[in-house]
Write a structure and sequence with these properties.
homodimer, Rossmann fold, alpha/beta, about 425 residues, 11-stranded mixed β-sheet, 17 strands
């Protein structure tokens, strides 16, 4: 049988990984797929640089992206240029030309996914996106196919390696965010402009995609609540540890009766959970299903060959399924297009979590009583209290409170009221806490 | 579209889970599969007991298994009776009748897999077996589809919950094997006859299946090296801990130039690895691929609904794929039947691992030197030595040695030579050690 022919858009690290993995493991892959997979064209802005990145792979490069996606001899287009505007146009052009598409572009799918999947369905082609979430971990496949028996209850994932590396370093070395970020940039774990990572945007793209395929709702990145790790202080990592918790930047999506939670924020997680022990740039996703219970998927979330592993898995899936009746393929968003849910994404005020609070309070009688009264008045019950002399001196104290689950809107009112107390001497730190079991 | 019609053989806990999950999540599953899935017949030896187990599900039960597999209105037969003889006959009869088959029966596939898959391929039907390995964890799907880009290097898994529960209890409570086994039986974590679990046979069935789909070799259970946990002593768990290791019963399969390792045995694993922290009856499988690096999959490896989760995922896969050209389906053993490898399963003497040795030696000069000389003469290099006064008194000492990787045959010779020394006062304990990274 003739090999499946592939055009790759982009010639960065992931493109280079795809070309190298397909060449190195070509025999192994063909033994599985029953058919060869061959990259016949690479489109790159800078063809000289592309040649360098791709080494002696012998694949032709050109700078005409539009021509590459329309080549009549191409079966699958792999989009690896990133960004949302040109990538959207090229992916839609490829679909229009009847090509299957594989993409690692989470931003593109989190924002334009509904449009792209609708176009693909109309044209009877597939869009594979395993590489868009958690790199080499086959989490999209697990959610769309491995756990089809389940009503998914929630997903919580470490889905950004840069921030997990920074948090791991902050904890193990007791350092501040800024110091570790500089180190991460020096080591290549963080980009020169790390905004998308450290502000949680990248994790939110991925959480948005997982939310859609877990609950059968359209991708709605604009409804995600996003907080990064830039304001996190070493003191809170230390206090969390003393209370048996670690702080991780989690992408969380959860089904509630009223709708769906979709949020990214630093989160206290019990130290004994496996996900709390995922260190460095590694990724891990916990999925809770009603039949299967808790499952976890762990691996490298980024990098040339781990991401290529996911891209190539999609290429093999398409090779296997492209002759199948489109109605019998795995639906892009896990649920049949005519069976999607209209459950709303809940505003953050309606989200339910427990909280970690750190208040710097005057060291005088009655302070704790006033604070606990404010919480009690809003039906927020307290799980644990830790009081420590502040580093600043004797006249003030760090007061740490862990609460049970409550509604965020109620907590925000309580926080405003506590902050207004004259005995609360600094801005209150409030972090969300999840038991994840 | 008419629902897919299913006959279930067996009415135990997993069958009951399958029926309940399909009923409870019927809407969710249909929204994914695009078609209903309906159990129309259950075959059970004791129909009265079956009725009780299945509760008010309203599915007809009968005791004629042969009739159930041949019913013309059945599309898929789910085999959940266990054992290898009757199960083999029924599965082959179902295939012969043109039915797709889903089975949770690892013993059946580890022993008769090649015959069953060949019959299924000849008939153009699918045999799903996600539930046969690690229960609800979609590890078969990850290996056969999620990691197709990779040359798999090795797999190491906690794939028997009973033994992991026992080892967790032995470690956390410092108890002996016998005490914990009795407790596990009382709690229902171990069977009245626990031989298959504690002797490693169940884990070896699962490791055999994973080995076949990872490396494209036929299932060869008879070539697996199998050791259980019955001889494990509390002292070694304690010493391992002091050296930074935990002891887990692992199913391991690894590709070497000379062939494939396939083995189940208690194994020292660095305590900092995620898999070392998998406690209680949970399962976890680590897969090392050349492109993706290390990945890990964690969840419940047994139980009614976790196993049902895997069975139903297979049912949905078959629902999606049964109209597809058989040549384009996922091959049963991951590789195309005409592209299998004839790499041999290596005898245990050729396996390469590091070792943990505990020797009870006379407390006199020259003992350590004689022992290290024996190891050095066989090119076995030492990683660490720990010497502790034995509980037995002052005249003898526990000598713990960690070695670097060596060939098992060489170690066995060294062990025989050391055991013959008059200063070695008790049988030497030798356990294998894997770094798993």
């Amino acid at each position: 049988m003739k090999p499946i022919r592939i055009a790759v858009l982009g010639a960065g690290v992931v493109a280079s990984g795809v070309v190298h993995v397909l060449q190195r493991n070509q025999q192994e892959i063909q033994r599985r797929a029953g058919r060869g997979l061959e990259v016949i064209a690479i489109a790159a802005r800078n063809t000289a640089k592309a040649h360098e990145a791709l080494g002696a792979t012998g694949v032709a490069t050109a700078d005409d992206f539009e021509a590459a996606v329309r080549r009549p001899d191409v079966d699958i287009v792999v989009e690896l240029i990133g960004g949302t505007d040109r990538a959207r146009a090229l992916v839609l052009a490829a679909i229009e030309a009847g090509k299957h598409v594989v993409t690692a572009n989470k931003a593109l799918l989190a924002v334009h996914g509904s449009e792209i999947f609708a176009a693909a369905s109309a044209k009877g082609v597939m869009v594979g996106f395993e590489a868009a979430v958690a790199g080499g971990i086959p989490i999209i496949k697990a959610l769309r196919e491995g756990l089809t028996a389940n009503r998914i209850e929630w997903i919580a994932g470490i889905i950004n390696g840069t921030t997990n590396f920074i948090l791991s370093e902050m904890r193990s070395k007791g350092l501040d965010f800024g110091t570790v970020l500089a180190e991460a940039q020096r080591l290549g774990y963080a980009e020169a402009d790390p905004t998308f990572d450290i502000e949680g945007v990248d994790a939110a793209h991925k959480a948005t995609i997982m939310s859609a395929i877990a609950f059968g709702v359209p991708v709605q990145f604009d409804k995600a609540h996003i907080e990064g790790i830039t304001k996190l202080q070493a003191a809170d990592i230390r206090y969390a540890e003393q209370l048996g918790y670690r702080i991780k930047l989690l992408g969380i999506t959860r089904r509630r009766d009223e709708g769906i939670e979709l949020r990214v924020h630093p989160t206290l997680v019990p130290a004994k959970r496996l996900i709390a022990n995922v260190e460095g740039a590694m990724n891990a996703v916990v999925v809770q299903g009603d039949a299967v219970g808790t499952t976890l998927y762990y691996g490298k979330g980024a990098g040339s060959e781990p991401t290529a592993s996911a891209v190539v898995a999609d290429l093999v899936d398409i090779t296997r399924l492209h002759t199948a009746d489109p109605d019998h393929r795995v639906p892009h968003l896990a649920f049949q297009p005519d069976a999607m849910s209209d459950a709303p994404i809940l505003p953050i005020e309606q989200v339910r979590t427990a909280f970690y609070l750190r208040l710097v309070v005057a060291d005088e009688t009655g302070v704790l009583s006033r604070i606990t009264t404010i919480l009690a008045e809003r039906d927020i019950s307290i799980d644990a209290v830790l009081q420590r002399e502040s580093a600043e001196g004797e006249r003030q104290t760090d007061l740490i409170i862990l609460t049970h689950d409550t509604v965020e809107g109620r907590m925000r009112q309580a926080l405003a009221q506590m902050q207004a107390l004259p005995t609360v001497l600094a801005p209150i730190v409030a972090l969300r806490k999840e038991e994840l079991a």
